[in-house]
Amino acid sequence: MSIEELLDNINIGLEIKKIRATSKILAITDKGIKYSLGTSGNSKNISFQELKEAINELKVKGSISREWYAKQFPIQSKSAPCNYSTIGGLLMHVSYASYDKGKYYLKIN
After folding, report:
1. pLDDT tens digit sequence for 14-27
2. Which residues contact 4 (CB under 8 A, 6 or more apart)?
């Protein structure tokens, strides 16, 4: 999986099913993906760097956890902790990951 493959399979308006909520892609820019936070009208951004590192961690280690995300992206983890579940939701949408007990695992087809 690459960023390009991920982007080929998502679009503006796509609803991302997460474990406890649903978000919607509002924009895809040259820096990353802007998504909604529930129905409040608030939004956050996921950088392509966050996505690349998550994809790589899944390839190499087979899973990503909130602890991994907090260590890799301490600023984002504090200011936008929902980025972790949105990244997981995006990877589940493209059938690259599955979720179990707080972690996202590489989905083997």
Report:
1. 999 888 888 999 99
2. none
